[in-house]
Structure formats: structure tokens, C-alpha cells
Amino acid sequence: MSEEAWLRQLSDSDRRQAESLLRELATLGCRDPYSWAGAEIEADIPQLARYRFLHDLWPRLIDAWPDAVTGHEAARRAVRAGASPDDLGALARTVAYETVAAMLVHLADEHPPADLPSWRLTEVDATGAPTGRGLLGLDTELPALDPSTPQGGRP
Predict the structure, then answer these.
(1) Helix, strand, or coil here: 144?
(2) How many domains would you assign to the chain?
(3) Digit-coded pLDDT (tens) for 127-151
(4) What is the DSSP letter of 31?
(5) Are 56 and 145 in contact (CB under 8 A)?
(6) Cβ distance 37 to 25 under 8 Å?
(7) Which helix (H) or strand (E) holds 123?
């Protein structure tokens, strides 16, 4: 089904919500907003919150390291010893990615002990009130948003 046909088949309230999601996702730079909006409308998954959370991780926590790494003394010593600045940047990006991915697995807390408190990352509305929808499966979706890949931005 085409994107326009999908929108036409929605109820008026779902169409308005979908159009709002599409605008927000496009503003955030989403490469495939219809897939993200469709999952939110059809499966009640907080895709806009998930996209925003994951999308922000790349520039802030992963892609910031390749350029910043050469500012560290250990990296300067490695370059003086013959290491390539590009290789050091790639290593830093990989370590940052693996750290973020591991943190997302930790945040999921899928198997908490029955007698201890746990945690859950949840969506809140613009006023800060919880919507009741959890941001689940973030660790599995992180690679799909890698901005350096052609498919980055697809859920």
C-alpha cells in the first residue's frame, strides 16, 4: 500500500495523529517517517519517543568521539607511535557504540529479581506525564539508525 493510500484508510483522528507524527519525524531528520509513524498508529508503540531517544544518541554519544579522540594525551602518544588518527577515531566510535548498546540492554532490565525494585524507560507527554508506553527494544533498533549507513533511519 502506498503512503498516501495508508493515510487515506485511517480514521480522521488517526490520520491527524499520523500527519503530526510524520511532521515531527521529518523535522528530526527521520529517513523513513512512514514506517515509524505506521508502527505508532497501528501497534501503539511510542515510535516518536523511541526515534528521538535513539537518534540523539548517535551525534551526542557515538559520533562525537572520532574527532574528539585526538585531543586526549593517550591518543596523541598513539599517533606519535605510528597509529593512524582515522583508526583511533574508528576505534573510539566502536567503543562508544558498544557502550551505548550495552547501556540500552541494561536499561531494558528484562530479568529483574522478583524481590528487588527495577526500572523502565517510559514515554512522557509534553507536560511530563507518563503515557504508560515503554520504550522497549531500543538495543535492537540502535544499529538501524546509524547515520553513516544508507539504511539509517529505518525502524
Answers:
(1) helix
(2) 1
(3) 999 999 999 999 999 998 998 887 6
(4) S
(5) no
(6) yes
(7) strand 122-124
The answer to whether position 78 is within a domain reads yes
Provide the 3-class DSSP secondary structure of residue 130: strand
Q: pLDDT digit string (tens) for 106-129?
A: 998 888 899 999 998 999 999 999
152 in a structural domain: no
Q: Is position 57 within any domain?
A: yes
In a domain, 21, yes or no: yes
For the chain, the residue count is: 155
CA distance 37 to 42: 8
The number of angstroms, rounded, from the C-alpha of 17 to the middle of its chain's C-alpha atoms is 21
Spatial separation of the C-alpha atoms in residues 79 and 68, rounded to whole Å: 14
**Hey, what amino acid is at 80?**
R
Task: Supply the pTM of this predicted model.
Answer: 0.85
Distance (Å, whole) CA 15 – CA 47:
16
82: containing domain? 3-145
Is 135 exposed, middle or buried, given 0-12, 13-18 or 19+ CB atoms closer than 10 A? buried
